[in-house]
Amino acid sequence: MGLILLILFWGSAFPIIKITLQFMSPFIIALIRVTVGGTLLFLVVRKLAYGVKESISALLNIGIFLVLLNLGIQYSANPGLASTLIYTQPVFVLILSRLVLKERINLLQVLGIVLAFTGVIASVGLSNFDLGSVIALLGGLTWAVGTIYYRVYLRDRDVLALNAYMSLFSGLFLAPVSLVEPRFTPNLEGIGLALLVSVTAQALGFILWFNAVKSIGPVRASTIVLLVPVSSYLFSYLLLGEIPTLEEAVGSAVTLFGIFLTFIPGINTRKLS
């Protein structure tokens, strides 16, 4: 039940952010999200895991990442497509693990990488690779760099206390950055939607995610949340009337299948070393 809620919360966040962008800038949305979400997380765990390394992780995994996520949604025609491109993160993690950490990958995972990027090209098209697509992919890459950084320096930290701190610290980063575009229209709908994303995607989302990782393990949990882009396409249709093109649907399916393959540690395949 928890994972189902998580998929619904994270998937619906993309079109909800698209609607909220009518009332405020992507920077203001991110600032509200980390401030409210981080405060709620702190009230749950009653402690913070803080420090220099934690602050760097906050910028990579939350502050910069959320700005790129919101900008990717703003400049993408369909929030579902932006979601798919953001969720190329595991592919970038695998590539960086090989290049930076010198970890070995198997042939099936290499096939997954190729399929994932083939699906991206099929979804967007070389001639239609717009600003939103580029920003969303950069979001996935930034998230991946943050994941590697976390694995190297912070994997022994209390994850909820760490995420509470990272959310709140990201607010200190986003407050001045939001001055780049301080657009904010006082409107109950816009404020309500921003608060909704803060509660569901940020606070409850992280709690449900780490509960899932604890109960079924990170690989199975990560595999299941690949349904988030599917959920995002569904909510984009329900809330915005956005129907994916055939290219977007097929390309996204190929991308997600490729990402799924990257989670497979090896099935009697020769590893690349």
UniProtKB/TrEMBL annotation:
SUPFAM superfamilies membership: Multidrug resistance efflux transporter EmrE
Superkingdom assignment: Archaea
Bilayer topology: Multi-pass membrane protein
Main location: membrane
Residues annotated as domain EamA: 3-122, 132-263
Pfam families: EamA (PF00892)
Record localization: Cell membrane
InterPro entries membership: AA-Vitamin_Transporters (IPR050638), EamA_dom (IPR000620), EmrE-like (IPR037185)
Record keywords, A-Z: Cell membrane, Membrane, Transmembrane, Transmembrane helix
Name by which UniProt lists this protein: DMT family transporter
Organism: Metallosphaera prunae
